[in-house]
Amino acid sequence: MLDKATDLLVGPVFDAVDIGLVVLDSQQCIIGWNEWIARVSRRPAEDVLGKNLCDVFPDLRNTRLPAVIEDAFQAGSSSILTHTLNTLLPLQGDGGERLLHNIVVRPVFSAPAKYCLLQITDVTVAVIRERLLRERQNARYYAIVDSAPDAIITIDDSRKIRWVNGAVDDVLGYSHSELLEQKIDILLEPENVLLPILAKTNGREETRTAVSVVGRYRDGRTGHFDVSIGHWRADRRDFVTTIWRDVTERVIADAALRDARDALQQANEELESRVEQRTRERETALRQLHESQKMESIGQLTGGVAHDFNNLLAVILGSLGLLKKAVPHDPRVSRFLDRAIQGAERGATLTTRLLAFARRQELKVELVTLQKLIPEMLDFLRHSVGPNIDIHTNISPDINAIEVDANQLELALINLAVNARDAMPEGGSLTITCHNEDDGKRIGTARDGFVCISVTDTGEGMNEETLAHAQEPFFTTKGVGKGTGLGLSMVHGFIAQSGGMMRLKSELGKGTTVTLRLPRARENPKAPIANIELSQLAKPKNLRVLLVDDDILVSMGAADMLLDLGHSVTEAQSGSHALRLLESDTPFDVVVTDYAMPGMNGFELAQRIKERNSRLPVILATGYAELPANRSIEFERLSKPYTAKDLAAALEKAANS
Amino acid sequence: MRSNATDLTEIEQDALAEIANMGVSRAANSLRQMVGEQVFLSVPTVEIVTRQAASKLVERNNSKRLVAVQQTFEGPFCGKALLIFPEAQSLELVRSIVGYEHSLEDVIDLEQEALAETGNIILNGCLATIANMLHRTMRMSLPSIVRGDGATLFGNGASGEQYVLFLYIDFNIKKRDVGGFIALLMDLPSIAALKEIVNDYVNDIQRHLPSHVG
Amino acid sequence: MQYKVLVVDDSKLARMVMASALRRVRPEWTLVETANADEALAAVSATKIDIALVDFNMPDTDGLELVARIHKAHPDMPVAVVSANVQDEIIGRARELNAGFIPKPLTDDALAAFLSGAALRLKKVPT
Fold first, then answer.
1. Which of C13, C89, C90 sits opposite B18 (nearest CB)?
2. CATH homologous superfamily for C4-124?
3. Does C contact A via 3+ CB–CB distances below 8 Å?
């Protein structure tokens, strides 16, 4: 309200205000046009007054303005038309710049007339100020963002790129405008890890560590990128800002490093495995050595015990023999004596076996043709294994002869057969095959020319553990009282002593094969030793015997035997003693010496004697077979314990050689 | 028959619904000019409720963040006209009109003015139609923007404005669905005056139809 | 000539307005009032309707679609869409359907103009 309004005041005020004022009548003709609007529209009042607004500005007909003015008259509506939704009047500022303006339309009722007032306000400054303010506020943000070396890309909830920073050119090769409105998918390979993460919002802003992604440059090449992701909301709309760092070079370098490290590790592992293998091999070898050493020490122990036992048996046997001769013939007494002798002889058999195991038995090596030996013992074998077992033989007719102790071989085969029988409680079959084997290398030896005897059964077989233990002495699966466990080891000992090899092969449930390989006989085999009955021998003449034994008891026993045989005896307790005696004038016909003696053993003594007097026969009495069987020994050997018969035979041979 | 002031007879209901529809159609016509595509508006329901009820109704779906374009009106009846949207919807409305060519920041700047103008168009459409149909002129204010929850928008009953002519409206602009409310907040005399005027209008028409079956 | 006019509008008030205007403009013509599409189609097949005035903004009914269906059965019937909604698209579609358009609020003049034109068309068609 203008107090004391006068037309004089209204006019200047009308033109003084800093907004545009236009007054229209009900025909929409201009009846008021103030200074401000005249200036900014470049239309002076006199040009427009009385004219229809839309005639003065024809473009207004396409706008809402005419209808809105009409509404003001008709309904009394007040309206606002903003620059954001409308393009209205062509207004310019002093510098010619376009003026952004809003128009407010108000009915003015001054009864009875109706007018419409337009107020035109310049919002340019406000708009620009706001924009400047925003820009200033954003300037720092933009400074960081635009100067960032990494590409920053913001997408909306349909994955369309809404905003990018300048670095997209450097990093990805795209210009600003090329990326806007595109889907971010164009930067990614079809199957990529990024898309699902982009979609996840949960309504909260999630910060994540960067995701490694394979991205695509503008030129189509791919590269590796670390992409950081931030979800954010503005005005209920979801956006995702991604920051792309090109790490292709680093990835390549990392990959190279990884490859190198893998290679190194692999080399390391190989080295380790090789070392492991060698260690295992060594351990195996050591274990085998240990085993054999163990076997050897057991053997030694057993052998030692057996030897001592042998000596004692010799004394007992010898004395019993003499006793039998000396005592008047009484059946009861004879019976006792025979029993005693039998017992001692059986003891001797046992020690023989022990010594065989210890590889120290005396072997009677002779030429053996398996083609004859095995068929001859078949009956005995059949008897040993019983009727439930079928025995098959497959003996190649052209196999070579071998040099072995035939008895021991038979015993060995019987041993194997009995083992086979025990492994086939329900019955089965036993197969013995013989054939030549010429290639030594195949069986791991430098020698060539073997005869192979294999004994196969269809029995329970052995598992690996049992197989490993099978050759151990005293190892038996046969249960208490059923086997001494000496069998296989005895066979093994005998075969080894005979210069051969034994191999076991077994499969649980399928059966076992024992393969014996014995060397072919040499060109000039020793002639088989005939077992001559003592009674067929001519009565020996009286011999002067030098008896050498460190064991007095044994020596006495042997001396008695000799005396009984009608020889004269001189006893020496050591090799050196014996040599001294030999140097003396006392003549001797034969030397009978024990082998195992401290200091100088019997063999050494014999050699020394031979050096001095090659014509003096030496008999080595021994339970040991220290020397390998295939080394020729020129001295007569007498196996302990020996009977008077054995002694006489040996003396006969020695004296006559 | 005249019952409780807040009850609408069937014919009153019908009349107001028709007027509301026409008012909103008029607004749609105006909007179409700006949008460039067909604008779909409908008014499913019209009712008179208390202020408290209205403030609850506008908070349906638990949207307590509301934006309203507000205009006062004077004439044979007076009160406050409100165009009310949940905040997100209000932006949807404006964006659908303003378009998406602008950058994120620009849209935010423009939004407030655009919302005021849009609201102005819609409310004017309704009010002007009422005025025209009822052969009355009114005086209406320029739009202002109010934010808050239902209680804030409907005030604490200043000057006895207790009754709300309540319309729920559906928009579909450029394939985006927007749902909001129009509320005419009036005091009892104004409601009564409105009803009277409506009845006069109806009677006027009926007078020309002696054999018309009502 | 007496013609029968069908009015389709869900609003009773709108029907009243229409009836009132018709009485003023063409007092001798008859009026059939229906409130929705189903009623309208029933009326069209039951009686001989000469002219139809269809409200655009009806719930569950697209006014323009109703116009199309009426025209399928009666291609030559003059039909007008009545609506406050004067958007180009709506007017355009009405034109395509060979229908007139009368804006709301209904004025006697606008109604009279359309009815004159309709009567003219009806006279030309041999019945």
1. C13
2. Response regulator (3.40.50.2300)
3. no
CA–CA separation, C98 and C71 (whole Å): 9
- What is A251-357's CATH number, 1.10.150, 1.10.287, 3.10.450, 3.10.50? 1.10.287
- pLDDT value of residue C33: 93
Which residues 6+ apart lie within 8 Å of C6 measured at CB? C32, C34, C40, C43, C44, C49, C51, C52, C53
Q: Is residue A295 scored above 50 in pLDDT?
A: yes
Of B18, B38, B209, which has the smallest distance from its Cβ to C87's Cβ? Answer: B38
A107 touches chain B (CB under 8 A): yes
* CA gap A303, A624 in Å, rounded: 8
Q: Which CATH superfamily, name and number, covers A534-656?
A: Response regulator (3.40.50.2300)
Write a three-state SS string for B14-43. Answer: HHHHHHHHHHHHHHHHHHHHHHCCCEEEEE
Q: Does C86 touch chain B (CB under 8 A)?
A: yes
Beta strand residue intervals within A465-617, DSSP E: 501-507, 511-519, 544-548, 568-572, 590-594
What are the start-end ranges of the E strands in A493-652? 501-507, 511-519, 544-548, 568-572, 590-594, 618-622, 636-639
A6 in B contact zone (CB under 8 Å) = no
Contact criterion met (CB < 8 Å) for A76 and B75: yes
pLDDT at A317 over 50: yes
**A117 near B CB under 8 A:** no
* CATH number of the domain to which B53 belongs: 3.40.1550.10
Contact B75 A84 (CB under 8 A): no
- Sort out which chain C residues have CB atoms less than 8 A from B32's CB and list them: 87-88
Average pLDDT value for residue range C77-105: 89
Mean pLDDT of C18-47: 91
Inspect the interface and report whether the beta carbons of B104 and A234 lie closer than 8 Å: yes
H runs (alpha helix) in A62-175: 65-75, 124-147, 168-172
Q: Give per-residue pLDDT as tens, A380-436.
A: 788 778 888 899 999 988 888 888 888 788 888 888 888 888 888 888 899 999 988
C12 in reach of chain B (CB within 8 A): yes
Q: How many beta-carbon pairs below 8 A join chains B and C?
A: 65
Segment among A72-86, A532-546, B26-40 with least mean pLDDT: A532-546
pTM attached to this predicted model: 0.50
CA of B137 vs chain A CAs: smallest distance (Å): 5
Find, in chain B, the residue whose alpha carbon is nearest to that of C82.
Answer: B22
With beta carbons under 8 A apart, name residues in chain A contacting B118: 85
Dihedral sign computed on CA atoms, order A248, A254, A257, A261: negative
Q: At what angle do helices C108-124 and C12-25 cross, to 10 degrees?
A: 70
What is this model's ipTM?
0.83
| pLDDT score, position A447 | 62
- The whole-chain average pLDDT of chain A stands at 80
Please tell me the predicted confidence (pLDDT) of residue C7. Answer: 94
Q: What is the CA radius of gyration of chain B?
A: 17
Q: Which residue's structure tokens are 């189903």? A: C38
C34 part of contact set with chain B, CB < 8 Å:
no
User: Does residue B112 register a pLDDT over 60?
Assistant: yes
Contacts of A484 (CB under 8 A, 6+ apart): A474, A476
* Touching subunits for chain C (3+ Cβ pairs under 8 A): B
Kindly state the DSSP code that residue A361 receives in the 8-state scheme.
Answer: -
Taking an 8 Å cut-off on Cβ atoms, the answer to whether B114 and A77 are in contact is no
Superfamily of A148-246 according to CATH: PAS domain (3.30.450.20)
Q: Please answer whether residues C54 and C81 qualify as being in contact, where contact means their C-beta atoms are separated by less than 8 angstroms.
A: yes
| Residue to test with chain B: of A64, A77, A117, A165, most B Cβ within 10 A | A77
Q: What is the third-level CATH fold of A366-519?
A: Heat Shock Protein 90 (3.30.565)
Tell me: pLDDT of B2 over 50: no
Amino acid identity of residue A389, one-letter, is: I
